[in-house]
Write a structure and sequence with these properties.
The complex is a heterodimer of chains A (about 170) and B (about 250).
Chain A: H1 2-9, H2 16-27, H3 39-42, E1 45-51, E2 54-59, H4 68-82, E3 86-91, H5 104-113, E4 115-116, E5 143-147, E6 155-160, E7 166-170
Parallel strand pairs in A: 2-3, 4-7
Antiparallel strand pairs in A: 1-2, 5-6, 6-7
Helix pairs in contact in A: 1-2, 2-4
Chain B: H1 5-24, H2 33-59, H3 67-72, H4 83-86, H5 92-113, H6 119-147, H7 151-164, H8 176-183, H9 194-207, H10 229-244
Helix pairs in contact in B: 1-2, 2-6, 5-6, 5-7, 5-9, 6-7
Classes of the chains: A alpha/beta (about 170), B mainly alpha (about 250).
Chain lengths: ~170, ~250
């Protein structure tokens, strides 16, 4: 659908529609580590500006050392090239990305994928401080933390004490 | 030599890279699976921060250097990290104590750096401060567990305090390069963080049944490029691939 839209508008360089198309193409790029959510839903796509037909895209990393950052930037460039836009990527650090920017859709998709979405309104960081994390499968509140660090920089490992399923929790930062 | 931001940034970046590399040395060797994930995971945060700082340092003052040039093609005497971060891992107690010392310091540092007039410093600080909270929580919990654990774990922790505390004073040393940028509100003062740091470490030591070390004195020299033998070994291992394949890219 995006492609046909693009063809209709390809002569109106810099028009509102081009902007919308480019935004939609970029924001639909999937996160390579968590391919159930798009970078639009994660809130890491910060800005997209068209200048003389070139898309200037601003992206924020989730964690400083997130190895997916490069893969995401390449994927955005590839998707926009396919849609006919030359692209340059800006990495934006400030203000820092927070899990509060994940959209409601994104949170629901994480849950359906089996990853508990981050507890909202950045939790306390006290020693031994535990947050209440709901099981993404049975919604039980009776869960326990297995490991503060999980399969990727942004996740922790939990287990549900009601249905006994282990699951990933998207850490709140 | 006139004060320059490159040197000041390298001090910061080198601290993060060297400790990040030390943490990565645990990969595949940690005492349990959870720690095998946790330690390199924290290392990844530190290396990520170092990368941003190296990239920045490489572009200012017509340096024209890449982050790889700065990380992999400088020799021991050119590294400006404090001595604490290059200390060998020795055992798990040394590792988590070193991490607690460093992350408690860096959280205070990045918190102040949020007021910097330099946009990039503010950006790095905003991300890193949050990550330091995780590192403090993880290493602090372990310090308490070890101190309040068995006779053996308590003994190992006390040995680590004996070995490492003497390196902590260097954390609060404002180098001439820094003082210049502190006055310009670009970098925070390290010295000013000392009393807060001592208070936070002391509160964790109390829970861990560790008496706060009374001795005065310090071991320093890292900020001048004077390092222990161990840094040479670390660099030899960390830089070997890049030096064997100059210009190689991922």
């Amino acid at each position: 659908m995006v492609k046909s839209l693009m063809k209709e508008n390809q002569h109106k360089n810099g028009s509102v529609n081009d902007q919308e198309i480019a935004w939609s193409v970029a924001s639909n790029v999937l996160d390579p580590e968590i391919p159930c959510v798009t970078i639009g839903e994660l809130g890491i796509l910060r800005d997209l500006e068209l200048q003389d037909g070139k898309a200037i895209v601003s992206v924020s990393p989730t964690y400083s050392g997130c190895p997916a950052v490069l893969a995401i930037e390449l994927a955005i460039e590839a998707a926009l090239l396919k849609a006919g836009f030359k692209t340059s990527i800006n990495r934006v650090l400030s203000p820092p990305w927070t899990t509060d920017w994940i959209s409601e859709d994104g949170r629901n998709k994480l849950k359906d994928y089996g990853i508990a979405p981050p507890v909202k309104a950045s939790s306390k960081m006290a020693l031994f401080g535990n947050v209440e994390v709901k099981c993404p499968r049975c919604s039980s509140q009776d869960t326990e933390k297995l490991s503060e660090f999980g399969s990727t920089a942004c996740k922790a490992q939990y287990r549900c004490n009601s249905c006994y399923e282990p699951f990933d929790y998207f850490k709140c930062i | 030599m006139s004060s320059n931001l490159t040197q000041a940034l390298l001090e910061l970046a080198d601290d993060n890279l060297i400790l990040g590399h030390r943490l990565s040395e645990w990969c595949g060797h940690a005492p349990m699976l959870e720690e095998d994930l946790a330690l390199p995971n924290m290392g990844l945060d530190l290396i990520g921060t170092a990368r941003t700082l190296y990239s920045y340092a490489g572009t200012i003052e017509s340096n024209n250097k890449s982050e790889d040039d700065l990380a992999f093609l400088r020799d021991e005497r050119e590294f400006l990290n404090c001595l604490l971060v290059e200390r060998p891992n020795v055992n798990f107690a040394h590792t988590v104590l070193k991490q607690l010392y460093f992350s408690t310091f860096m959280k205070l540092y990045w918190n102040e750096a949020l007021n910097s007039k330099d946009e990039i410093i503010v950006g790095v600080a905003g991300k890193a401060k949050k990550e330091m909270s995780y590192h403090i929580r993880h290493s602090g919990e372990w310090v308490i567990r070890l101190g309040d654990g068995t006779t053996e774990s308590n003994k190992k922790l006390l040995e680590a305090v004996d070995a490492l505390h003497i390196y902590t004073n260097e954390l609060f040393f404002d180098t001439p390069n820094n003082i210049y940028f502190i006055k310009k509100d670009i970098l925070p003062s390290r010295k000013a963080l000392k009393s807060k740091w001592e208070k936070e470490i002391n509160s964790i030591f109390k829970m861990a049944f560790v008496p706060y070390p009374e001795f005065e004195g310090e071991l320093s020299g890292g900020r001048l490029g004077l390092h222990g033998e161990e840094l040479g070994h670390l660099l030899a291992s960390m830089q070997s691939v890049h030096r064997a394949h100059p210009g190689a890219k991922w």
